[in-house]
Amino acid sequence: MKLTDVLVKVQPLETKGNMDIEITGVQMDSRKVKKGDLFIAVKGTQTDGHAFISKALELGAVAVLQSNELSAELLEGVTYVRVADTEDAVGKVATQFFGDPSRKLQLVGVTGTNGKTTIATVLYNMYRAFGHKVGLCSTVCNYIDDQAVSADHTTPDPITLNELLARMVEAGCEYAFMECSSHAIQQKRIGGLHFVGALFTNLTRDHLDYHKTFENYRDAKKMFFDGLDKDAFAITNADDRNGMVMVQNTKATIKTYSTRTVADFKGRILEESLEGMLLDIDGREVSVRFIGRFNVSNLLAVYGAAVMLGQEPQEVLRVMSTLHPVNGRFEAIRSKEGVSAIVDYAHTPDALINVLTTINEIVKGKASVITVCGAGGNRDAGKRPLMAQEAANRSDRVIITSDNPRFEDPQVIINDMLAGLDAEQKKKVISIVDRREAIRAAAMMAQPGDVILVAGKGHEPYQEIKGVKHHFDDHEEIRAAFGLE
Ligand SMILES: CC(=O)N[C@H]1[C@@H](OP(=O)(O)OP(=O)(O)OC[C@H]2O[C@@H](n3ccc(=O)[nH]c3=O)[C@H](O)[C@@H]2O)O[C@H](CO)[C@@H](O)[C@@H]1O[C@H](C)C(=O)N[C@@H](C)C(=O)N[C@H](CCC(=O)O)C(=O)O
Ligand SMILES: Nc1ncnc2c1ncn2[C@@H]1O[C@H](COP(=O)(O)OP(=O)(O)OP(=O)(O)O)[C@@H](O)[C@H]1O
Ligand SMILES: N[C@H](CCC[C@H](N)C(=O)O)C(=O)O
Ligand SMILES: [Mg+2]
């Protein structure tokens, strides 16, 4: 593709060299550069991409897009272009290079602290059940219809993302559902994409290590809605205190969902057990295999999106009743003795409150609730004591253990969690550093009817220790501890 065509959406401040050249790829990471590529130098949180321009040229880049002044000693035969903000330019360049794929399918994005993976995945499963070819971009895995493409991020960088969307278009996908993390919105990873709809789940404490304040975190999420076109839809959660804040400046058509108040899409629980729920959605009964009050909100967001995309409500509910929970999101495993274990990805104080409240509503004080949880290393340390408190307040026993310690000492993370507990809470809490041992201990303690919550890792098939991902799967560990298979 011609360099000038790739740059149509950006405003160059200065150029040096031949603009009439062909480029064969675009890269923002010098390590991925191949001969003929355009390299985009971006200032990051760890380092500055401008420091890798010479590396990119060594690997064969023929053009450079940068924000630093073009210095005197530029290489002959290389084209240099300066723009004000390269972070902003990457998305625009990537959409252009990959043929603007987001305009060739119906793209719906989901943002919020919790529930993104659940909603995006349920929409993907639902649209496949409707008989469409569909793409998914999520924390757990990306999909080009039925082809899995592993995911390293909740929302990939703009180049990877547009390439993925282009592959979806090529494979004939008509719809794509994607998670939009606050990091991604802030870093403009979704810049230049065209969304037909956007969904908001909720906003609670997370990622303050990156955003610093709750207000910054909220505003990052809001930017997604501010950027929508007027023919898009924005579906927000009327039960969340920031639900209306998200959409206050959007040009899109605003719709709301709620389990408690007046809204465009309304739902409530009629019956619930560890097998599923019977719901009333907009006056129609539907039984689902999902568990938990928060999943009613998630399913309402799914329902709202499908209706706004033009599906018949009745048909949406019929398909919804056939769908299964998402990997690692409130998945129940039962022992032969009648102990239930729930695998859930709850890794924030709020998610723990939600999951444990649901479990307690079902158990109704007739059996014990045993929670096994930890907190990730090299992530927001402020949430650790809060997670321990919420677990202790809603469980009969708690075993604090390791999550992904990453580069931290696991015992230090556990100590941070224990520091949140008062004397009364400490009485029901023990700590076991080894997660496998912690799960086994919970299985030994449990009596028939009891429920064990194993929280924090959900779908993750690994435990990350000092940069190495060791195979570890909570489902497998529970089955082994229960003596199943
Ligand atoms: C804090 C953060 O979000 N960092 C992301 C960010 O990197 P950065 O700004 O720190 O980049 P940097 O390392 O300073 O490098 C600057 C530039 O130099 C380039 N570079 C760097 C080294 C080199 O040798 N050559 C080179 O060209 C880099 O490619 C980059 O363009 O941009 C990169 C490219 O998009 C991301 O891969 C990287 O994700 C890091 C690895 C990460 O861990 N991110 C997590 C926190 C994250 O994004 N999480 C969210 C969701 C979390 C959730 O909701 O649960 C996600 O969407 O996954
Ligand atoms: N609507 C919701 N409200 C509150 N908690 C929820 C909701 N949906 C899911 N959860 C809880 O949050 C956990 C994570 O859910 P999910 O993976 O769907 O969220 P996510 O937004 O994709 O998270 P991440 O940002 O880590 O990718 C679940 O395991 C569950 O405990
Ligand atoms: N996307 C989240 C997931 C956290 C999952 C938990 N298991 C942990 O390692 O903290 C993050 O990277 O912060
Ligand atoms: Mg997710």
UniProtKB/TrEMBL annotation:
Q: Which GO terms describe its biological process?
A: cell division; cell wall organization; peptidoglycan biosynthetic process; regulation of cell shape
- Identify the main location: cytoplasm
Q: What is the lineage of its organism?
A: Bacteria, Pseudomonadati, Bacteroidota, Bacteroidia, Bacteroidales
Tell me which UniProt keywords the record has, alphabetically.
ATP-binding, Cell cycle, Cell division, Cell shape, Cell wall biogenesis/degradation, Cytoplasm, Ligase, Magnesium, Nucleotide-binding, Peptidoglycan synthesis
The record describes its post-translational modification as: Carboxylation is probably crucial for Mg(2+) binding and, consequently, for the gamma-phosphate positioning of ATP.
Task: State where UDP-N-acetyl-alpha-D-muramoyl-L-alanyl-D-glutamate binds.
Answer: S30, T154, T155, S181, Q187, R189
According to the entry, every stretch annotated as the Mur ligase N-terminal catalytic domain falls at 22-94
Q: In which pathway does it act?
A: Cell wall biogenesis; peptidoglycan biosynthesis
The record's subcellular location field reads: Cytoplasm
Record bears the keyword Iron-sulfur: no
Q: For the motif Meso-diaminopimelate recognition motif, give the residue ranges.
A: 403-406
**What cofactor does its activity depend on?**
Mg(2+)
Species of the source = Alloprevotella rava F0323
* MF GO annotations: ATP binding; magnesium ion binding; UDP-N-acetylmuramoylalanyl-D-glutamate-2,6-diaminopimelate ligase activity
Which InterPro entries does this entry report, sorted A to Z? Mur-like_cat_sf, Mur_ligase_C, Mur_ligase_C_dom_sf, Mur_ligase_cen, Mur_ligase_N, MurE/MurF_N, UDP-N-AcMur-Glu-dNH2Pim_ligase
A single Gene Ontology CC term: cytoplasm
Positions where N6-carboxylysine occurs in the chain: K221
- Which reactions appear under catalytic activity for this entry? UDP-N-acetyl-alpha-D-muramoyl-L-alanyl-D-glutamate + meso-2,6-diaminopimelate + ATP = UDP-N-acetyl-alpha-D-muramoyl-L-alanyl-gamma-D-glutamyl-meso-2,6-diaminopimelate + ADP + phosphate + H(+)
Which intervals hold domain Mur ligase C-terminal?
328-458
* Official protein name in the record: UDP-N-acetylmuramoyl-L-alanyl-D-glutamate--2,6-diaminopimelate ligase
Family stated for the protein in its record: Belongs to the MurCDEF family. MurE subfamily.
SUPFAM superfamilies xrefs = MurD-like peptide ligases, catalytic domain, MurD-like peptide ligases, peptide-binding domain, MurE/MurF N-terminal domain
Cite the binding residues for ATP: G112, T113, N114, G115, K116, T117, T118
PANTHER family in the record: MUR LIGASE FAMILY MEMBER (PTHR23135), UDP-N-ACETYLMURAMOYL-L-ALANYL-D-GLUTAMATE--2,6-DIAMINOPIMELATE LIGASE MURE HOMOLOG, CHLOROPLASTIC (PTHR23135:SF4)
Q: What is its EC number?
A: 6.3.2.13
Q: Per its database record, what is this protein's job?
A: Catalyzes the addition of meso-diaminopimelic acid to the nucleotide precursor UDP-N-acetylmuramoyl-L-alanyl-D-glutamate (UMAG) in the biosynthesis of bacterial cell-wall peptidoglycan.
Domain Mur ligase central as annotated: residue spans: 110-306
